[in-house]
């Protein structure tokens, strides 16, 4: 099935961040308002004919429903379509547009009372900007917090619009800039230097903890940032169903259930050392038990910590690690009931 | 013939049947006050609250989000509320050590292989979730995991409750009280919302406010009330306030709403108070009071005390002069409006069991009393239709 394209007229072209990105607004005839309606966060696919070839690209819609249909496109170095849009597209041109779609969407509800945390970087702001506007406009009992990473103050897409939102909705919207390379003389004080990482997330949540307890987390940035934010949230016990993510350049599925590999483990236990074979789908604890040894254990759920051992060589993956502090993990402690091997040689000790 | 007290049978105030029905259909089906937000200040902290027939606990996760669960172990029902683990990442039942994570998932059954040779499906044995939210600095719980939001429940009355931001105020611990009144909970509510009694029972205790100019009404089952300061208090109001302001000028007056069911607030220019009514039996009710004041320095409190001293030094006193009082601790000679209210409630309750009790006509200022009875009837009716 080949979904239909609709020919839309460009009504406005606006350069953002000194031409490094471009906002394109389309005229949406009333007759198409329904077919081309969207939810905040969704994207559209555009079709161009460039270099004698059909080119398709998807771009997030950077306006909430009710506002004009607008996309915001950052130039990719050497990118055919993004530079075409930046250099040649002009008001009055027509572009083929497919109906909006996408799972990464926020539907505001005036009767919901939610706390939305938004984590974005670079042009990942485009769907988040639509979402934030939708919440501030259509969800009056909810609040929004944006943590937004960029290289420096010159490269903040929608910088001014966001400042205005923060000023006009001081009680319902907070804005935090994280800059990795702030130029000191232009930008005096971003909220933090560095990246949108685990520490930034913790700090933001501590500073503005949720008041409305229906909490939702929205992430949009490059794949690596998404993974990092997702992991940081999971480490804080945020349930997966409250985390919504999209990485630009396609949705990257986070690695879920890791399976191990077969390995040989040297196990120090009760003053002696044993050689224990570990099967790919076996936890270290099970392997050691199958070898007829009697290591300490109890809950087998990663809760009690009884099966704790020290990894002195090799690598493992832990399915759960509730019983361990970060400092334990840093020291090399593992829960043998939760660990599968990820290197084929291992040494662990129950005696340390 | 059923003896009536306006819209409700007198029975509604005295019988175990009515009490049970209200526990089941009102107090187990609504958002209940569960404390102040600061009662659960950090990850791992928890509180539990009896909300009608439900005991619900609230715990803060490491993401600073609150979770609420029914405080019932899925094994044999033991109340759980005991966190274990170094950082309290899990909740273990004291009885057989079944352990749940902070999302309520059952994560550990001790000796599982031996005790349950055919296995247990842990995924169906998670704690039953309830709901929790924070509103005006207060914790609220609801037994249903997907209840109407607080925006839906209180949204319409919210703008009429005063410009206070309780989350920015500081609790005054000395004012925290919990006491029992020997009267039905509705008698206590009716006393709270009776506008007629203000100038009479409290003729000598609450006259810094102008009851004649009170504005009050209803948004659904929730009652709202506001009255301005009386003229001699209002002249030099800033000087006369006993403690520093908690709301910005030019806001003045007292906001004294009663949210359904039995959640009273009392907020003025310089303080914010809660008055939580919990039925304990057909003729026994608990009231819990907490007070918040400005987040100001001791010096600012001292200055305000000095400046207001001349107003308060001769203000108020006993309703009955010494000669009429029955003894040293006669509430009518206490000069304390709470003591006056408790006394009135208990004296009224005593008569409800008399075969000779017959209610007199309701005054204008008692229209909230009658309206509250209707709110009870309406709520019961919707709930009964829904079950
Ligand atoms: S046996 Fe309890 S954490 Fe591994
Ligand atoms: S009743 Fe809770 S573990 Fe048995
Ligand atoms: Fe009173």
Task: Walk me through the structure.
- The complex is a heterodimer of chains A (352) and B (387).
- Chain A has helices at residues 80-87, 125-138, 159-168, 198-207, 223-235, 284-290, 326-331, and strands spanning 6-16, 21-27, 43-50, 53-60, 70-74, 94-97, 114-121, 143-150, 173-179, 192-193, 214-221, 243-247, 263-269, 272-278, 308-313, 316-318, 333-335, 339-341, 345-349.
- By secondary structure, chain A is of the alpha/beta class.
- Chain A is elongated, with a radius of gyration of 25 Å.
- Chain B has 2 domains: 32-146, Rieske Iron-sulfur Protein, CATH 2.102.10; 159-386, Alpha-Beta Complex (Naphthalene 1,2-dioxygenase Alpha Subunit, Chain A, domain 1), CATH 3.90.380.10.
- Chain B has 9 helices and 21 strands.
- Chain B has a 6-stranded antiparallel sheet, with no helix packed on it.
- In chain B, strand 4 and strand 5 form a beta hairpin.
- The longest helix of chain B is centred in the last third of the chain and has 20 residues, at 367-386.
- Chains A and B meet through loops of A and strand 11 and helix 3 of B.
- The complex binds FE2/S2 (inorganic) cluster (2 copies) and fe (ii) ion.
- One FE2/S2 (inorganic) cluster binds at residues 297-300, 302-307, 323, 335, 337 of chain A.
- Chain A: It holds the Pfam family FAD_binding_6.
- Chain A: Keywords: 2Fe-2S, FAD, Flavoprotein, Iron, Iron-sulfur, Metal-binding, Oxidoreductase.
- Chain A: This is 2Fe-2S iron-sulfur cluster binding domain-containing protein.
